[in-house]
Amino acid sequence: xxxxxxxxxxxxxxxxxxxSGYNFxxxxxxxxxxxxxxxxxxxxxxxxxxxxTRSRRIKxxxxxxxxxxxxxxxxxxxxxxxxxxxxDIDFENFEGSINEGIEHLSEDSEMEILSVGASHHGDLHRFxxxxxxxxxxxxxxxxxxxxxxxxxxxxxxxxxxxYESLDKDDLAKVAxxxxxxxxxxxxxxxxxxxxxxxxLEVFPEGPYPREIIANEMSELxxxxxxxxxxxxxxxxxxxxxxxxxxKMILNAxxxxxxxxxxxxxxxxxxxxxxxxxxxxxxxxGSITLDIMKNTDCNLYLLHV
Length: 304
Hints:
- By secondary structure, the protein is α/β, with parallel strands linked by helices.
- It has helices at about 15-30, 40-45, 70-80, 100-105, 130-140, 170-180, 210-235, 255-265, 285-295; strands at about 5, 30-40, 55-60, 65-70, 90-95, 110-115, 145, 155-160, 185-195, 240-250, 270, 300.
């Protein structure tokens, strides 16, 4: 059975991620699986050889696995606080470094979606995720659910749709998310136009800048509206209720306008396809990073 893997350090601050990931998996018909990397036990056993310092492992009767005692106590306490039955969720406690744990997770052929939590690290906005989550994003080629708040029902989904040609595979995923969650979809599309005026003495016979801007914006608006109407029609065929907002902006930051729209809509989930760059710290795309840093919404990243 395909599964949604919830990466967690099992501390109280991770409960929003576990709660949202668990409910999301149930809605999609996936097996929720909790994944914890125990970096402490291997270090203790390497440094101390006395049997009194060695980690104790207990066989859990529900999961039928030998699990390090402290990790088992933590996961039992966490699931108890969230009122999640152990019969309804799997658990894997990997003992090793974070890099080793991520490499191990990458070999899991049944993992369909990765769920991680998000947290700020002081004023260093580049590192908006905890270390494990950030490394997971850049090394596991899966769709990723990023949880900033605990959500029981994802009833309002916002799809930040590009103004260029539609990706029907992405739209099919959005339709599936909406159907499984019985949610409405609102698509936000921002079309940016950057215009630098030119010297009229160089182009005396050409159209004035205002005419150029008007013509360019008209063409871009028509193209984007055509794609949005196609998207609405496709979603309607899939039984999904959808509408959209289309905004044209001139010489302005599209990321900031998207942030404003997302905050106004008070959505449960923002779906976005990150744009990839050369440098690792920009590999999600600047707009995606801005949405993550400056809004409280949970996000679903397509094709990370």
